[in-house]
Amino acid sequence: MSRYRIPGKGRVDHAAPVRFSFDGRSYMGLRGDTVASALLANGVHLMGRSFKYHRPRGAVTAGSEEPNALIGTSRGKGRAEPNTRATMQELRAGLVAESQNRWPGLGFDAGAVNDLLYPLFSAGFYYKTFMWPRAFWDRLYEPVIRAAAGLGRAPGEPDPDRYASRYLHADLLVVGAGPAGLAAARAAARAGLRVTLVDEHAEMGGALLSDPGVVIEGRPAWDWLAAVLEELRGLGVRLMCRTTAIGYYHQNMIGLCERLTDHLDSPPETAPRERLWRVRAARVVLAQGAIEKPLVFDGNDRPGVMLAGAAQTYLHRFGVLVGRRAAVVTAHDSAYFAAFDLADAGVRIAVLVDTRDAPPADLLDQARRRGIEVLAGHSVTATAGRLRIRSVRVNRVRDGQVAGGRAIACDCLLMSGGWTPSLHLFSHTKGSLIWDAAAQTYLPGETIEDCHVAGAGRGLWGYGAVLADGDAAGVAAASALGRAAAGAAPAVAHDRTGSGEAQRELPSDMAPSLARAFVDFQNDVTAKDIRLAVREGMKSIEHVKRYTTTGMATDQGKLSNINGLMIAADMLGKAPPQVGLTTFRPPYTPTTFGALAGYHRGSHFELTRKTPIDAWAEERGAVFEPVAQWRRAWYFPRPGEDMEAAVARECLATRASVGIFDASTLGKIEVAGPDAVEFMNRMYTNPWSKLAPGRTRYGLLLGEDGFIRDDGVIGRLADDLFHVTTTTGGAARVLTMMEDYLQTEWPDLRVWLTSTTEHWAVAALNGPNARKVLEPLVEGLDISNDAFPHMSVTECRVAGIPARLFRLSFTGELGFEINVPARHGPDLWRALMAAGAAHDICPYGTETMHVLRAEKGFIIVGQDTDGTVTPADAGLGWAIGKAKPDFVGKRSLSRPDMVAPGRKQLVGLLTEDGAVRLEEGAQIVDDPARPLPMRMVGHVTSSYRSATLGRSIAMALIENGHSRMGELVHVPMPGRTHRARITGTAFYDPDGARMKL
Amino acid sequence: MLLIHCPYCDETLPEAEFAYAGEAHIARPADPMATSDEEWRDYLFIRTNARGPHYERWRHVHGCGRFFNALRDTVSDRFLMTYKAGVPRPDLPATEDAQ
Ligand SMILES: [Zn+2]
Questions:
Q1: CB nearest B85 (choices: A448, A736, A743)
Q2: Confidence band (pLDDT; 50, 70, 90) for B97?
Q3: Nearest Cα to A211, choosing from A289, A108, A130, A99?
């Protein structure tokens, strides 16, 4: 076995070697290892390069807070992931791992030249350096910065994995399965609660996994852990490992991301990779423990420098020594225990530096017994070594004076700046944080959620205290839910209690401008950067954060936030709570898009609505376009035709003989009841009282602000029944608006609204031969122009199918719209196609429909209007029932701005060169010779090539357009500026004679 | 995700079933044409934008379809109460007692 693995020690399986590769080199680890522990077992500390300075970096933690050891992992095509934390990725056979942020190699990295330029790359560097000249930003700075920026490489192929999601309900959710979480879950489960216990690691136990010497309820920690887990299983507690609580949402909904296959050698082909759980829990106990703080000194980022607690974890959990000759520097008692455990495992402790003047006597005793030299009242001022620490410089500090230093050889340096309660999820609840001046840390205050923080997460220290607190939290949860619960605070022997002091950067004899004392390892922010930010005027931690980027990396400052805050507060001469704390937001750790998307990908991302004619259109080779959630036939190309050719043919065929169009997507609402006509009078601008049953009318709907919201032809089938049509995209919106007025403004009206959009299949027949096609299929009805004139509606049978037959036209030709129950749509369609064969009936799509309506100047709401267009602006003043006392939007039409001159009005535009088609959305100017920025007087809303007219046509909204008929305007487009003349909007058959054949 | 009590269904259900519908108790004037420009402007555009308890409308859009009123704290995002459309605006202190 490797030099750094202790045979038989730890929770790894020494009989199960696992081969993996890192940067192309093959290594051996053990089942139960993480990538980090396996590399450390092989003596490899160098695992990556830093973000900005490309400094060599190693693992500094053994958990999810790791800022340095970020690797790329891959498992074949599409299964690559950047920024995986080597401290969390479990080893699996054949794992391919690569370091990041280095070129050409990890040992020699060209980007490390940035490190030599350190004095240049100070806080706010980007803001200061790339300000000027403006043009350099687009062409030089941004492309170069973008190319150099980023952590890792994003995968370039679609992710072939599956991701699942589920809901879960629980009486109690416990987050974190360390001693506090275990005790809470046990107390609550014993009281009969349905409990879920989650932990982000591969196994439960938390700190107990790193402290096997503690004795709980008479058993060694690991035996106690096994017994508790067995009891919890027996009590029906749902135990979820490898499950991260990523966010705490409203009313005790917690998001969990469960990693299911990343640790497996060969996952089952159909297994989901991750599962997102949405848990609604009556009570929540947050037992997330505390995160150890680094100390801030020059060279604190060198590979081999790591947190003391991490070294203790690698020793006990993985049987791995992080070095043979360790130096320790601490401001907290906890690092003594790490030093003792390492010494007992055979590691030479070269020195234990304590920043405090008077460490506890019993710890000094225990150190002396092990022959460990303790230097109290000392500071670490530098480290040396190229790709791994070689020595540490230690200086005596007395009354603030730093004496000369001496170098002490070591191959690893274990540091502890104390512990920060992990309050990220608590912060997601908008819970208040209270500064504890004695502990120099934030503790949880009030929250509106039914949530309790237990253990080290609320500043407690020592197993006895933490276990008792967890137990009490479980009892409290049970009592809150009306269950009697008896507490049983576990008795603890060989406890490891302790306390510490909070440090800023450690005292040093080095010039502060030269020290590279890192606060945020991942974003390469130093103490100097933070002090500089304050000097340059940043007074709030929110500003310091944005100016220096401290705490903005993927670890959200789990290690750095408090150190950064303390240094900023020190510089400002204020207490930390006056400087503030940045807000933690979900997710707690980086989460895959796959997990968040779950099943909602590909065709499941958004539903696709299809009409009853869709299959026919597909068979016929239609090209489709999405309209709202529908897919609609766009055009029907014949072999060799492009879109332009197909649309020209469809237009000409319809105008020459007859075309057929699937209008099923039109929104349809039935308005029924004794007060239906009154309701219609109040909703729509038009008058409805005199519309006789059997007649239809174009209806215009405004918002209360007077702007056009929707339109459509509305038929009156009976005194108390209207068949309302809406635009395809507006159906749901119009029904909601109608319901709103009916329910809340006019609840006295006896009216019922029913959405019938999908009840009807609609075929539109248009063209001079439309009647000839339809007539033979209609039973019991004379559809001659005299008997069934333009704008009629009736119920009849068409091709043997019960139908609502409308005579109307959106093309300017003689037109009929045949509505039949949706299930009969295909039959109707086939019958019309058969009957139309003799007249060369031509199926056409939405593009031809658009061209035909534009030739007639018929608007499309949402294309020719944009929410700021009144009926008068659109030339639809005729559609207003002026005698009506009120309708929705009426009052707004006389507001001062609505009648002021200068409004944009809808007009036609004809380019001087009929071969030029203007771009929809193109801006319109009066005088292109004017200097920039030029005043824009309007824009093109619709523009097409009209095969019928043999030229292009367009519509536009132009200031005062209605009074500018015949004037020339200019339309700048890429390449050149075109001239166009303002006209009316009816380009074809302006008298409407063809509709009334 | 919030849990919202629909006063018509008398069920507490996930937020995803509901849609927000603006501030509550803004009645459409009985005769809009009789309002001044200022009164009509206020009706159209002027809203409370409360920090704290806010009377607002919701619709149980994927349920019974009914519009109803709610009193929600915009700071905590907590629903203090919901009640049927047409019920007079409840007083704040009374609602706090009710909770
Ligand atoms: Zn309801």
A1: A743
A2: very low
A3: A289
Q: Show the tokens assigned to A443.
A: 């503790």
Question: Per-residue confidence at A580, pLDDT binned at 50, 70, 90?
Answer: confident
- Contacts for A933-942: CB closer than 8 Å, 24+ residues apart: A937/A969, A938/A904, A938/A969, A940/A909, A940/A971, A941/A863, A941/A864, A941/A906, A942/A850, A942/A854, A942/A860, A942/A863, A942/A864
Query: Residue B67: which of A250, A744, A896 has the nearest Cβ?
Result: A744
- Which tokens go with A731? 């159906």
Residue A117 pLDDT > 80? no
What percent of chain A shows pLDDT beyond 90?
88
Among candidates A251, A739, A891 on the partner chain, residue whose Cβ is nearest the Cβ of B32? A891
- Range with the lowest mean pLDDT among A47-56, A163-172, B63-72? A47-56
Residue range A754-765, pLDDT digits in tens? 999 999 999 999
Distances in Å between the Cα of A231 and the Cα atoms of A187, A242, A369 are 11, 20, 40
Average confidence (pLDDT) over A515-525: 94
Cβ-based interface (< 8 Å): residues of A facing B:
249-251, 253, 278, 430, 448, 704-705, 736, 739-740, 743-745, 747, 885-886, 890-892, 895-896
The amino acid occupying position A448 is I
Residues 6+ apart with CB under 8 A from A138: none
Delineate the domains of chain A, giving CATH numbers in brackets.
10-153 (3.10.20.440), 163-290+421-485 (3.50.50.60), 295-416 (3.50.50.60), 662-852 (3.30.1360.120), 854-983 (3.30.1360.120)
**Residue A629 pLDDT grade (very low, low, confident, very high; cuts 50, 70, 90):** very high
| Non-local CB neighbours of A252 within 8 Å, separated by 6+ positions | A173, A280, A281, A282, A283, A284, A449, A450, A451
8 Å CB contact of B66 and A705:
no
Rounded CA-CA distance A286/A247 in Å is 12
Asked if A152 and A83 count as a contact pair (C-beta separation under 8 A), the reply is yes
Tell me the average pLDDT across A318-331: 98
| Chain A residues touching B33 at Cβ < 8 A | 885-886, 890-891
Confidence band of A252 (pLDDT split at 50, 70, 90):
very high
Q: Is the pLDDT of residue A581 over 70?
A: yes
* Domain parsing of chain B, residue ranges: 3-93
Q: Which residues pair with A350 in a beta bridge?
A: none
Q: Do B41 and A895 touch (CB under 8 A)?
A: yes
**Residue A372 pLDDT exceeds 60:** yes
φ, ψ dihedrals at A989, nearest 5°:
45, 60
CATH classification (class only), B3-93? alpha beta
Give the closest of A249, A704, A743 to B66, CB-based. Answer: A743
Q: B77 and A250: CB-CB below 8 Å?
A: yes
Contact B86 A747 (CB under 8 A): yes
Chain B residues near residue A251 by CB distance under 8 angstroms: 1-3
> For position B99, what pLDDT does the model report?
40
- How would you classify the pairing of strands A378-384 and A391-398? antiparallel
- The set of residues, in sequence order, having a beta carbon less than 8 Å from that of A194 and lying 6+ positions away, is A169, A170, A171, A172, A236
Q: Tell me the pLDDT band of A780, cut-offs 50, 70 and 90.
A: confident
Maximal C-alpha separation, chain A: 115
Q: Closest Cα of chain B to A470: distance in Å?
A: 27
Asked if A710 contacts A820 with a C-beta cutoff of 8 angstroms, the reply is no
Q: ipTM exceeding 0.90? A: yes
Query: A736 contacts in B (CB within 8 Å)?
Result: 59, 61
Q: Which residues contact A282 (CB under 8 A, 6 or more apart)?
A: A170, A171, A172, A252, A450, A480, A481
pLDDT 10s digits, A60-110: 999 999 999 999 999 888 899 999 999 999 999 999 999 987 777 777 777
